[in-house]
Fold:
Amino acid sequence: MAQRRRRRVALGNNKGGVGKTGTTINLAASLAEAGRRVLVVDFDPQANASRRLGRPFRPDSPTVTASEIVRSGEPGAAADAIVPCDWEGVYALRIDVIPSRFDLENRISEAAVMHARQRLRSALEGVDDEYDVTLMDCPPSLGHLTQLVLAAADWGITLVEPEYDGVEGATRFRDFMVDPANLAELANPELQFLAAVPSMVDTRLGAHAHHLSTLPGIFGPDCVWDPIPARSVVKDAADSALPLSAMGSRAAEARAAFDATAARLWKEITA
Structure:
């Protein structure tokens, strides 16, 4: 049987609070509903993606997390950390998670160790080949943890809250990952910037409408995807650690937006 092509997508922004984690898990849900197998790698020490997918770290029942696989850096070490998400139905069958916890921050002190940036890539070696997509949730930083993700990724997406700081953070994320010197340092010259996805958009706000109009000039018209609207139901689902489908009809608009983004993502990475 022919081996599947690995498809790893990093999602990030240099600023926090822009909807990055919410987009990651809801894209995973949309892809699973479309029949795709998804691995979510939570690489933020806040571990919000892990909690929202029902896999928070429990001190009374500890499991292997992103921190341990990076500390090891051994080829294939990530296999020891993979668990199914704790949502029901199709999600449990098609979404797996490499969970995180706060001590992932300890890996930052190892940045100066030789080949440290390649540890996540090594740990994932051969592990995610049978998944259709691997979605990697970056911390709101351009530091060592994000660089570990970018060294392992095939594509990068930046989430853009259409406000001044959100656009600036997204621009910094994009600029970092397209800089040839940085790609050389990451030993990942084939990493590609894929898209800027406007997130948490409220078109009733003049500032949002203004910043949305500037994005094609900043990122290129072909790289700006359709916006994902800000809806309270997304936060409600996140707080409850439930998929949007569990929120009933009031989640229909948000689900449609994530479905459209997931379909665009699949089209782009399988072209």
